[in-house]
User: What shape does this take?
Amino acid sequence: MNTQILNQREKKNIFFKTSPQSPIPRWTRKRFNGLEYFNYSSEFEFLCEISFVNNDKELKVSHSNGQIETYLNFANISFNHLGIDYKLTIYSSQNKNTLWLPFKDLTNKTESYSAGRYIDIKHDNLKNEHFELNFNTAYNPFCAYNDNYTCPLIPEENYLNIEIRAGEKYLAKLW
Assistant: This one.
């Protein structure tokens, strides 16, 4: 397994169990035994072609509470898995320093969070014509663990008709 990703997962479990900002309700943290993940798989690491969007196309994204947030289409990436081409859009937000790659896949509702998962991307990782996409870093939004949080919903253009068996799993009761 990738040591960096393993360390990130361990840090996230510590954060979820101990931080005042954890989405895990305080009264249940003693029973929190950590998040579950798909086994790390290089099958879900891709060198993607990237095309930067040269317009300011805005996307109005609904949140789980009905609130609307505006994102900009930043770039499109494409990758091939088992002979099939896929395309995703990376978004930027005026409120965040990282780029946002939301997606839904065929594991939603069964093994991963039904509303979809996210991957955060640093601007520095998008310097060239190619981008290293690693679905093993996919995570659930905080609203998956606590109704007091609100999360942007996945734009339909980022629905994948494939099982992404990588990254964070979702179980309704973690504690």
